[in-house]
Amino acid sequence: MCGYLVPSWEEIFNGTLSISQKIRKKKEDFQVIVAIARGGWIPARIISDLLGITRLISIQVESYKGEERHSINMLDDVTILDDKKINSCW
């Protein structure tokens, strides 16, 4: 077995339900969901459906080369988010 976390579909879906409930409890109006490419897009899409947030964008972040950790490298321009309300929920 590799050293990666491989969640089941049920764990992913239950996690997205939990995150969606936390966001709803905040009673704030979010305009966009930012998905992290290579692992975060599917959960972000489920959350966007559950919350009715239709704007969903993706960014790519690298911090590994193979199995070796390196510094974080932002590969996308996120200036399009400058005027948006963004919240981390985990």
TrEMBL record:
GO molecular function, one term: glycosyltransferase activity
InterPro entries (alphabetical): PRTase-like, PRTase_dom
Assigned keywords, A-Z: Glycosyltransferase, Transferase
Iron in keyword set: no
Domain of life: Archaea
Keyword Cell division included in the entry's annotation: no
PANTHER family noted in UniProt: HYPOXANTHINE PHOSPHORIBOSYLTRANSFERASE, PHOSPHORIBOSYLTRANSFERASE
Protein's recorded name: Uncharacterized protein
Organism of derivation: Candidatus Marsarchaeota G1 archaeon OSP_C
